[in-house]
Design brief:
Blueprint: H1 3-18, E1 24-28, H2 29-32, E2 42-48, E3 55-61, E4 64-72, H3 76-85, H4 90-97, E5 99-102, H5 107-121, H6 128-147, H7 153-174, H8 184-192, H9 194-210, H10 214-226, H11 241-246
Helix pairs in contact: 3-5, 4-5, 6-7, 6-10, 7-8, 7-9, 7-10, 8-9, 9-10
């Protein structure tokens, strides 16, 4: 039995044992895409009756780490709207690209169709204010990267991480593409713009391996030129009361 078949069987047992009241379930992530290893975790979406609470849980089942995405059926449309607004659509992708484990009443099929529609729709565009903030933040990080001596390696490495992350958000937004975090950041970045995405990732690698910020700096400047240029003086932002309390 292949790693994928083993994982699928285990996911089915988990749903049957822990969620006998479920209205359906899907298996997403690397297992559903055929890229799993014996140690890959399981990403499982479970649809529950409306009386159940929605949430996210991480457990270990039969020795394997499992991430559970629990949603009551009535909560799905509103939750998917929230997930889309984050521009990552983590759970939406679990349903859109996962495989059905069980669907006794057709709820999973309906939820998967909704998820596919949202994926096709794409993430919401950034507002004008968000674009200005993104340009300003990337410009600041880029200035810091240029000004930081390779002798201050810890600072240089952290700044390069911020440059890459902010750049990835802006590249994907520029192309109306989904963004991501962790291992999904480079994947989504290269999908949005293969050439610029690779330049940013290679530039980040050059900082990590050679303490050389030049390639990442050049790629980030290329991005800024696409979205209106660097932004320094002239940028303004008004604090909201709740926001100020968190700062």
């Amino acid at each position: 039995m292949s790693d994928q078949d083993t994982a699928i069987a285990q996911a089915g047992r988990l749903v049957g044992e822990l969620f006998p009241q479920s209205l359906g379930a899907v298996l997403g992530g690397s297992v559903a895409q055929g890229r799993s290893t014996p140690t890959s975790d399981l990403d499982i979406g479970v649809l529950l009756p409306d009386s159940a609470e929605s949430g996210r849980e991480v457990i270990r089942h039969e020795g394997r780490l499992v991430e559970l995405f629990l949603n009551s059926v009535g909560d799905v449309p509103k939750f998917f709207e929230w997930d889309r607004a984050r521009r990552r659509a983590t759970v939406v992708f679990v349903y859109a690209q996962g495989m059905t484990l069980t669907d006794p009443y057709g709820h999973v099929a309906h939820t998967r169709r909704l998820a596919e529609e949202i994926i096709a729709m794409g993430p919401p565009p950034l507002t004008a204010a968000q674009w200005r903030q993104g340009r300003y933040v990337l410009t600041c990080y880029l200035d810091d990267l240029v000004d930081t001596s390779p002798a201050r390696r810890h600072e240089q490495l952290v700044i390069s991480d911020h440059v890459l992350r902010e750049a990835a958000e802006l590249v994907t937004a520029h192309h109306g593409a989904w963004t991501g975090i962790g291992k999904w950041l480079p994947r989504r970045l290269k999908i949005a713009n293969p050439d610029l995405g690779k330049a940013l990732l290679d530039g980040h690698q050059a900082v990590a391996e050679r303490a050389d910020p030049a390639p990442l700096t050049a790629a980030a400047k290329e991005l800024l030129a696409l979205i209106g240029g660097p932004l320094r003086e002239g940028y303004s932002h008004r604090w909201q009361t709740d926001e100020a309390k968190r700062t």
